[in-house]
Amino acid sequence: MHLPIQQHIAAIIPYPPGKPIDELEREYGVTNVIKLASNENPWGPSPKAVAAITAMLPNLHRYPDGSSFSLTGAVARWIGASSDEIVLGNGSNEVIEFLVKAFVRGGDVVLTSHPSFLMYQKFVQVRGGVNVVVPLKGMHHDLESITAAVTDRTRLIFIDNPNNPTGTLISPGEFHRFLTGLPESLIVVVDEAYVDYTDRDQRIDILEYIRRPDTLPAVVSLRTFSKAFGLAGLRVGFGVMHSAVADQLHRVRQPFNINLLAQAGALAALEDLDHYQHTLQSTIEGRKWLTEAVTELGCQAYPSHTNFFLIDVRGDATRLYEAMLYKGVIVRSMKAYGYPNFIRITVGTSDENQRFVSALRDCLQDLGYVRR
Ligand SMILES: Cc1ncc(COP(=O)(O)O)c(C=O)c1O
User: Fold this and answer.
1) Pocket test for ligand 1, best of 38, 121, 163, 227 (most atoms within 8 A of CB)
2) Domains delineated in the chain
3) Which residues form ligand 1's pocket by a CB distance below 6 Å?
4) How many CB atoms lie within 10 A of CB 1?
5) If we measure between CA atoms, which residue out of 285, 315, 263, 102 comes closest to residue 189?
6) Residue 226 needs a FRET pair 20 to 30 A away by CA distance; which of 96, 175, 236, 346 works?
């Protein structure tokens, strides 16, 4: 065998997913593991979504509706957009992929920040595009440096807002100034995977920009059912954008990208906004409780507008991550992201939060990180 390997593909580093629970149980001989590593919803899916998926099972021999007509309409109504301004994806990840496929050719430049969500750069690498990565300033997107990095080869700018992993937010005013300083010829993609957790009065009015393609660049918002709706395993996300942008994305997507169960489940989840509200309320309460508890242990918790936040554990984060695994608690070390003393945790149920704090207390003591 002599594979026709392409260098730009061989250079891609696979995405590091959080450790799966059953793998940890096998490897470390622990049980009752809790995973606070992947920013999932610990309260699970809406029971209405589960019922809708179950009811759809006998139809699995049929292809799904290739236009996802009902789900697209429901999403559009929920967002206040029209159906031709919505593109659904197999997770919002797939909409990122569509954007790169549709607008980036070999040698074109895409601007991203570091640290931020890693998938943007990966899709650009696959296309043979050039990633120009602008470091965060403090914990925030450095909008001035991003603007300064724009050239006539720049096609897309990805900004996750709130940012993963720092949880910080760009204000509507900052965003407006940023947009007015950019050429019309590129697309600004605002990844709002966590915006559900953000106060409404702090959110950017993305629809206003989408509907106003006068002298400004096109703006795309990315949203997902994976977080606040508790459907990460179903893989449904969507982009909100001008219909002319949507038209380009529909050309590169495969016809049945949202499977039958996913269409049924996401549709039912949108009809159970009580479940969604319960998640948001419980997350905000849990985040406050956890922040106080880890501060009490001598760590520094960073404020966040999301369902996760960073903690400075005042010692090597990867050693702490390993020690926590033995307690059956999965968190994320932020060493690879350039924060050697930070972990990122997802807000869990109150039981999970208590177990996390008790494991953290023991591990900090065992490792001699903070003395209290
Ligand atoms: C910033 C950001 N965008 C997008 C995603 C992916 O979401 P989806 O599950 O919709 O593909 C994540 C998932 O963790 C994320 O953190």
Assistant:
1) 227
2) 7-45+274-367 (3.90.1150.10), 47-270 (3.40.640.10)
3) 39, 91-93, 117, 160, 164, 191, 193, 224, 226, 232, 237
4) 2
5) 102
6) 175
Task: Return the minimum-mean-pLDDT range out of 19-23, 151-155, 170-174.
Answer: 19-23
Place of tokens 């660049």: 217
First to last CA, the chain: 60
Query: With the C-alpha atoms ordered 226, 229, 233, 239, is the resulting torsion angle positive or negative?
Result: negative
Radius of gyration of the chain (CA): 21
Q: Among 9-23, 53-67, 220-234, 302-316, whose mean pLDDT is lowest?
A: 9-23
Give a three-class secondary structure readout of 181-219: CCCCCCEEEEECCCHHHCCHHHCCCHHHHHCCCCCCCEE
Atom index in ligand 1 nearest the CA of residue 39 equals 14
Q: Whose CA is nearest to atom 3 of ligand 1?
A: 193
* Cα 275 to middle of ligand 1, angstroms: 20
Question: H/E element holding 120?
Answer: helix 119-126
Local confidence band at 31 (pLDDT 50, 70, 90 cut-offs): confident
Q: Which of 117, 169, 189 to mutate to test the pocket of ligand 1 (most atoms within 8 A of CB)?
A: 117
The reported pLDDT for the residue numbered 21 is 83
Q: Which ligand 1 atom lies nearest to the CA of residue 236?
A: 10
Question: What is the rounded CA–CA span in Å between residue 331 and residue 27?
Answer: 16
Query: 119 CA distance to ligand 1 centroid (A)?
Result: 9
Cα gap 200→274, rounded to integer Å: 17
Ligand 1 centre to CA of 8 (Å) is 24
How far is Cα 155 from Cα 186, in angstroms, rounded to an integer?
5
Rounded Cα distance, 307 and 186, in Å: 31
Atom of ligand 1 nearest to the CA of 235: 9
The beta strand positions in the chain, using DSSP E, are: 34-35, 86-89, 109-114, 130-135, 154-160, 187-191, 218-224, 237-240, 300-301, 308-312, 329-330, 332-333, 342-346
